[in-house]
Structure formats: structure tokens, C-alpha cells
Amino acid sequence: MALLRGAPLNEHVTVAAAGVARLPHAQQVLLPEASHFAHYEQAAEFNKLVAAFVK
Description:
single chain; 55 residues
């Protein structure tokens, strides 16, 4: 992923997975070509996922 900088992608995924494991009902989703602003960079997909999650 071009927009991820710093640690390798697998390290980001591992850190996120640790947080997800501690939150009831949490989900981890990777959006292609999105970084810290996934809600802006991939707005349509982000909104679709959030809407499905809160139902």
C-alpha cells in the first residue's frame, strides 16, 4: 500500500489486531489505498462498512 509509511503493513495489521481483540464486536478492515484518513480517502466504502456494522 503506497500510503502506508513507517512500519511494514504486517506490523500495522498486528497492532490493529491487538486492539480489535480487546473490543467486543470490533472488526478490522483494510481499505486499499487508504491510510489514517480512510473515512475521507475511501468515503463510500467506509460509510458502507460503518452502516452495516451499526445495524
